[in-house]
Amino acid sequence: MPMNNKNFRKQAHQMVDWMADYLENIEQYPVKSQSQPGEIIAQLEEAPPTKGEPMSAIVEDFKKTIIPGMTHWQHPNFHAYFPANGSYPSILAEMLTATMGAQCMVWDTSPAAAELEERVMQWLQKMMGIPKDWVGVIQDTASTATLAALLTAREAAFDFVINKTGYHLPEKLRVYCSTETHSSIDKAVKIAGMGSKNLVKVGVDDTLAMNVAHLEQAIKNDIENDHKPLCVVATIGTTGTTAIDPIKAIAEVCNKYKVWLHIDAAYAGTALVLEEYRWMIEGMEGADSFVFNPHKWMFTNFDCSVYFVKNKKQLLNTFEILPEYLKTTVDQQVNNYRDWGIPLGRRFRALKLWFVIRNFGVSGIQQRIREHIAMAQDLKSVIEAHPTFEVLAPVHLNMICFRSVNAENNQLALNEHNKKLNETLNNSGKVYLTHTKINGNYCLRMHIGQTYVRKTHVDKAWKLIQKIANEV
Asked: pTM of the predicted model, to two decimals?
């Protein structure tokens, strides 16, 4: 029988109790799901039910079948990838957002959603040192924001005619990024029609940041070959090693050759709430667009990606479309955020960001970020002092790339040893780390940024890493 309001109220209270218990006792679960391929689907009915089932039975199956197949991203021993952090205020806001079920495509469809988004973007601008004349909008992910940047760069370079006529000129549009840049750039270049062969991967320096001299030479070469340099994507905090590309020097090159500069700060951008890390965006006024994800390190549930642009008009000219059924009487007075990106439909993402900033306060966010960085720097020092471990990349923030060296003395054997170490750690269920390769060397990649992680969790993880390294 479908639920009524009375049953909904009862079930909702029970679910909130389960949610609180889950978060309070999350450490009882293995961090990484221990399920094998096909194990979950084998427990699910092949055909949908003909008749409705009681919520009590559905919830029990959720606990019995779904939970064992979940990797617990809010676990304080989750040190893999970059986090997809939540927090108590963010969860509460998501509950309210889901309850209202608003589609916030234009101001008229929910004025509070549009104006709250505008204000929260202004808050972030002040919190992070973003140039005062820039404007911001919430996207779903950095991948979408980067695609929006490339499309805007394309349109701005050709007086906004490609959206109408298509691209028919013989010159190839070229996009540049470092060899360490995230794969979302490769995907965006393909979707935007430039073609993956026209993504130029620029070499890096000893810190694994983009080599600016190599960038300029690549641009010169393309101009000499009748290609059109379109966009450079610089990264603050690359996915593999959190390398920091030199924004000021890159901006000077881009301005010299009239190339769009997009800054991808998806993870590390949150650190800009700390004034001592504003050096990472020195020269940002010479860029054109910037993205960072509060859903990674600013304690706001996925998805919530913030995209800032220098020129609002260029963004709107790229994406604005106004069929009769979307026209309203206030269009000239408000922000209709459907015109600020790719999707028409928009979730009310600003609410959870508002809840988080207000509940933590700027100082509370700063304190938590500083704690994460301090824990990582402490662990880095411990690893560097250990006779059978080594750090393989600069630790700018709160992620460490390291490996066990033990008695192995060649790259192939060391790679196999560390791969087995990583797999054994993850299979234990006690900790979850991912890996990367630096100059061909397989290494463990450990970030310390889960919302409620504490030093005790880091210490336990390090003891386990040493123990397993000796065993494998």
From this structure: 0.93
